[in-house]
Design goal:
oxidoreductase; 44% helix; 18 helices; binds nicotinamide-adenine-dinucleotide; alpha/beta; 466 residues; 14 strands; Rossmann fold; eight-stranded mixed sheet; NAD(P)-bd_dom_sf; binds uridine-5'-diphosphate-xylopyranose; UDP-glucose 6-dehydrogenase; six-stranded parallel sheet; 2 domains
Length: 466
């Protein structure tokens, strides 16, 4: 059996970086090199300020960097030295061409695979770490096999990543499960064993699931679809709560106490964001359509549609409550990241909220503890959002505290559930706001009756106004 001694990871992003840093941390006998074509990102990984914010990541990276953990732009060298290669590149939704808006763009996976085929001088285990449509491993295998020879063979594994941002290090150190799919051939099973041995350095073997390649690929899309479906289900119920006087937190708690339902992922919100849920469900929708299963496609598509509806509903509630117009009104937007404990803004609900506020000519004052001003301007200037940085700058002010954001505003909107928003001095904030002062809690993190006693008019997702 192969014993892995040298790992290369292609793609130093939110997944490749933390995942392989933890492998290096837990396997001091294995050399791990993370490579990327983005030289700025690699320079940041080699600096004192890592390119992504993730609790616990600095400690892990600083403990192993330049010992058995390396970050480099020398893709060819690292590929050649490795016996196992993770492909952890981005697989965004296609923007143009066949399947635009639904299918995953596999150009980066293909280019990484061709890169391996072009330079490899010895046999390799190639591992799909990126989230990909079912049967992508077949295309990778075809490309690699076309380039293999009598003395070089490539074995493909699927090892999807289940970490969530904000808790990535904990998720990697104590995973619910690790999933490794392989072709059911002697060589495939041998490669699978080699990767099991890597994870077994710290993951109990009963948590390492081995399956065939296609089950592993599909399980990743399925897991994200099922998680997102719970959020859309609870968000659909939140609309009923607002209209009836039921309280979504109470309903979610009562339902979640049923062991068959369970309490997790039932927090109503302004809508899920992040780089994975929407992308992966649309990918599943596309796959279903390709397989001529339109009912299945429509079923999963509804999870994304409901999410869009939830964001729209929240914006409508804000405008209606602010006397049907927000033109020239000042709104404090607290939080821009797609969830707490990350600086990532991909598909953040805050972007949709801002887009709508700007279209209504409101003045938006944004505060987020971990998202940079440049990132906010970049996100809002994207085509299809506001499209024009000058227009964005006319409407947006970025502040360095929640207090500054709230100054002379008509309303506060909570878009991200950062812990610091729970403990702000709301009396001080109230004094600095225009009256009547409104709070719209899109994350159900605030004590509404306490705020009401201060004088705020409080609107919470999933609750009737108080
Ligand atoms: P990312 O965009 O942060 O990182 C991908 C990196 O790959 C980029 O830095 C890019 O420069 C690099 N890259 C692309 N092509 C390359 C090539 N040919 N050679 C070298 N480098 C190359 O993406 P991410 O968030 O880390 O996601 C990676 C994959 O993992 C995606 O398929 C995603 O769906 C999946 N995933 C992401 C998460 C998450 O929380 N972000 C969780 C689970 C799975
Ligand atoms: C998700 C999956 O959880 C993870 O397993 C996968 O590997 C990548 O995609 P991530 O997107 O990083 O992880 O974060 P997650 O915690 O799942 O949150 C996604 C979005 O759903 C966030 O906007 C979050 O605020 C929202 N959410 C989550 C809710 O609105 N309610 C919930 O109960 C849980």
């Amino acid at each position: 059996m192969t014993h892995v001694k040298n790992i290369c990871c292609i793609g130093a992003g939110y997944v490749g970086g933390p995942t392989c840093a933890v492998i290096a941390y837990k396997c001091p006998d294995i050399k791990v090199t993370i490579v990327d074509v983005n030289a700025i990102r690699i320079a940041a990984w080699n600096s004192g300020r890592l390119p992504i914010y993730e609790p616990g990541l600095d400690e892990i990276v600083f403990a192993r960097r330049n010992k058995n953990l390396f970050f480099s732009t020398e893709v060819e060298k690292a590929v050649n030295e490795a016996d196992l290669i993770f492909v952890s590149v981005n697989t965004p939704t296609k923007k143009t061409g066949v399947g635009a808006g639904y299918a995953a763009d596999l150009a980066y996976v293909e280019s990484a695979t061709r890169g391996i085929a072009d330079v490899a001088k010895s046999s390799k285990i190639v591992v799909e770490k990126s989230t990909v449509p079912c049967r992508t491993a077949e295309s990778m295998r075809t490309i690699l096999e076309a380039n293999s020879s009598d003395d070089i063979r490539f074995d493909i594994l699927s090892n999807p990543e289940f970490l969530a941002e904000g808790t990535a290090i904990n998720d990697l150190l104590y995973p619910d499960r690790v999933l490794i799919g392989a072709l059911q051939t002697p060589e495939g099973l041998n490669a699978q064993k080699a990767l099991v041995e890597v994870y077994a350095h710290w993951v109990p073997t009963e948590r390492i699931i081995t399956t065939n390649l296609w089950s592993s690929e599909l399980s990743k899309l399925a897991a994200n679809a099922l998680l997102a479906q719970r959020i859309s289900s609870v968000n659909a119920l939140s609309a009923i709560c607002e209209a009836t006087g039921a309280d979504i937190d109470e309903v979610a708690y009562a339902c979640g106490r049923d062991a068959r339902i369970g309490p997790k992922f039932l927090k109503a919100s302004v809508g899920f964001g992040g780089s994975c849920f929407q992308k992966d469900i649309l990918n599943l929708v596309y796959l279903s359509e390709q397989l001529n299963l339109p009912e299945v496609a429509a079923y999963w598509k509804q999870v994304v549609d409901l999410n869009e509806y939830q964001k729209k509903r929240f914006v409508s509630r804000i405008i209606k409550t602010l006397f049907n117009t927000i033109t020239n009104k000042r709104i404090a937007l607290l939080g821009f990241a797609f969830k707490k404990d990350t600086g990532d803004t991909r598909e953040s609900a805050a972007i949709t909220l801002c887009k709508n506020f700007i279209q209504e000519n409101a003045k938006v004052r944004i505060y987020d503890p971990k998202v940079s001003s440049e990132q906010i301007y970049m996100d809002l200037s994207e085509p299809g959002i506001v499209d024009n940085t000058e227009e964005v700058k006319k409407h947006i002010t970025i502040t360095s505290s929640a207090y500054e954001a709230a100054d002379n505003t008509d309303a506060i909107v909570i878009a991200t559930e950062w812990d610091e928003f729970k403990t702000l001095d709301y009396e001080k904030i109230y004094d600095r706001m225009n009256k009547p002062a409104f709070i719209f809690d899109g994350r159900l993190i605030l004590d509404a009756s306490k705020l009401q006693n201060i004088g705020f008019r409080v609107h919470t997702i999933g609750r009737a106004a108080i």
